[in-house]
Amino acid sequence: MILVAGENVIDLVPAPGGQLRPTCGGGPANTAASLARRGVPTALIGSVGGDHFGRQIWRRHIAAGVRRDWLHRTDLPSTLALAVVGEDGRADHDYWTNGTADFAWEGRALPKPDPARVDLVHFGSLAAYLDPSARAIEHWVNRARRAVPVSFDPNIRLSAMGEAAKVRERTERLIGLATLVRVSERDLARIYPGRAVDAIAREWLGAGPELVVVTLGDAGSVAFHRNHVTEAAAPQVDVVDRIGAGDAYTSGLIGWLTSAGWMRLDRLAAWGNPTVVGAALRYASQIAAQACTVPGAP
């Protein structure tokens, strides 16, 4: 089973006639739903609001097959994000996060990752950067990584996370807790403007991860390991929008490694094999491409 920790968000996506269509999103929630729909046992750790949107989110996870044992229901409102989609299908977001359910993690009992039942802990996005959830997640991940692999998807959103230098410092601290990192080229440009992708990835490898995977949009993706650099092309599809495509890619990457039996601390040597990593990248690219053919998050 994969444990995913993070937020749910309601994306307000442009619709015909100048309307806004509320759709379920949030990086970790998207990743969890994408995994569960493909039959990968997945539980989401987080909070859900007590409003209409919270009920919509809850129904999404029921339909996807996400385990909700640690998905806490509250009376607080749901987090909202206005998605502004550009001509290339990429979206920028404005967020409403103050006082919302997704970051109210005080006093929460989080699961102990037993390697007999848990393959991986995955975390990232807003809940890993905004307190009090950020403190709870960091403490929990720091304990979990002694027992199981940890994957991290920063999903940088400066409009909600704050000033770039502080976000970069926080990101580098969390990188040190991860076994695997998936990050987009666009995210890297937000906190390392003007720096080369390969230089950043190699610095991150030196901080602790076994594998750093960078997604490059239409140019595909590239994985950096101490023993190899492996690339994969992006399938060509008719793009509706790219909302949640990175989350779908992450789900494909960690889902493939888990299902193939390589997501264990005693089997990480397989990640040094470019054939293994290349297969994971190609599968993840297919999942991300499929997500681009439908509106909103997968």
Automatic annotation (TrEMBL):
Positions of the Carbohydrate kinase PfkB domain: 14-297
GO molecular function, one term: ATP binding
Signal sequence interval, chain numbering: none
Keywords: ATP-binding, Kinase, Nucleotide-binding, Transferase
InterPro entries: Carboh/pur_kinase_PfkB_CS, PfkB_Carbo_kinase, PfkB_dom, Ribokinase-like
Alphabetical list of PROSITE patterns matching this protein: PFKB_KINASES_1 (PS00583)
PANTHER family to which the protein is assigned, alphabetical: HEXOKINASE FAMILY MEMBER (PTHR43085), PSEUDOURIDINE KINASE-RELATED (PTHR43085:SF1)
Family: Belongs to the carbohydrate kinase PfkB family.
Protein's name according to its UniProt entry: Fructokinase
Source organism of this protein record: Glycomyces harbinensis
